[in-house]
Amino acid sequence: MAGAGISTPSGIPDFRSPGSGLYSNLQQYDIPYPEAIFELMYFFANPKPFFTLAKELYPGNYRPNYAHYFLRLLHDKGLLLRLYTQNIDGLERAAGIPPDRLVEAHGTFATATCTVCRRKFPGEDFRGDVMADKVPHCRACTGVVKPDIVFFGEELPQRFFLHLTDFPMADLLFVIGTSLEVEPFASLAGAVRSSVPRVLINRDLVGPFAWRQRHNDVAQLGDVVGGVETLVELLDWKEEMETLMQKEKEKLDAKDS
Ligand code: APR
C-alpha cells in the first residue's frame, strides 16, 4: 500500500506534511478548503484550480526514486502480488511495474473522460492543453474533459475491488509513505490475516500502527528512502537495486533525449 510519501523524494509534494504538503500550499487557488480541489462540485464551478495543480503533477515531469524501484524489484523477483497506490503521479508505471500488478486506487492521468458525453480519451491527448493552462474540451461535444483522477465522493476504479481476494492471500503487507487518512483505501491495512506481518515505512506512526497495533507489526520510521535502503541491506539486494536503477535511468535518459 503506497501513498504520496513515496514520491516526495522525487520532488512531488505530498498532501498533509505540515508546511510542505500540497494542502498547506493552495493559497493561490480560490478554493474554500484544500480538499475542494478534488471535489466535483468545485470542479464544475471552476475547473481551473484542479488543472493548475494537474499541470504540476502531470506524468513526465518527475522520475521514480529508490522506493519505487524497490517495489519494481519485488515484482522482478516474483514477490509482488499487487501494489495498491493512492498516487496519481504514474511513477509506479514509470518504474516498470506492469499495469496488471497495479491498482491505482485514486485514478490516473493515463486516461480522461468527458464530463458531459462520458467519452473516454487517452490522457496524452490533453497534455498540451494542460501545459498551456487551457481547460481541455471534448472534441465531440465540447464538454470539459476530466482526467480519470478519483474525486472525493466518486467511485473508485473497479480494479480496487481486487483487494477482496488479494489481501486475504497476502503473506506480508508493506505500508509505505501514507497517512492512512482516506477511506476506503486506509482500511485495507486491516484486511490482511492476523498472522501476516505488516511493515510500515513512514516518517511517523499512522492508522492502526498508531492506535491498534498487532503483535507482529513492524514500523521503520524516518525517511522513506532511508527505510527502504535499510531493508535492502538486510535482504542483501543492494547490488540488484543498483543494477536495476542504472538500467532504468539509461532508459529514461534515452526517452528524454
Ligand atoms: N519519508 C517518509 N515519510 C514521508 C516522506 C518521506 N520522504 N514524505 C512524506 N511522508 C509521509 C508523511 O509524513 C505522511 O505520513 O507520508 C505520508 C503522506 O501522507 P499524505 O500527504 O496524507 O498522502 P496520502 O496518504 O497519499 O494521502 C491520501 O489523500 O488527498 C487525498 O487523494 C489524496 O491520495 C491522496 C490521499
TrEMBL record:
Coiled coil: none
GO molecular function (one): histone deacetylase activity, NAD-dependent
Domain annotation Deacetylase sirtuin-type: ranges: 1-238
Cofactor binding summary note: Binds 1 zinc ion per subunit.
List of residues binding NAD(+): 4-8, 14-16, 86-89, 178-179, 202-204
Entry GO CC: nucleus
E.C. number: 2.3.1.286
CDD domains: SIRT1
InterPro entries with a match to the protein in the record: DHS-like_NAD/FAD-binding_dom, NAD-dep_sirtuin_deacylases, Sirtuin, Sirtuin_cat_small_dom_sf, Sirtuin_class_I, Ssirtuin_cat_dom
Domain of life: Eukaryota
Catalysed conversion reaction: N(6)-acetyl-L-lysyl-[protein] + NAD(+) + H2O = 2''-O-acetyl-ADP-D-ribose + nicotinamide + L-lysyl-[protein]
Cofactor (UniProt): Zn(2+)
Purpose: NAD-dependent protein deacetylase.
Name this protein carries in UniProt: NAD-dependent protein deacetylase
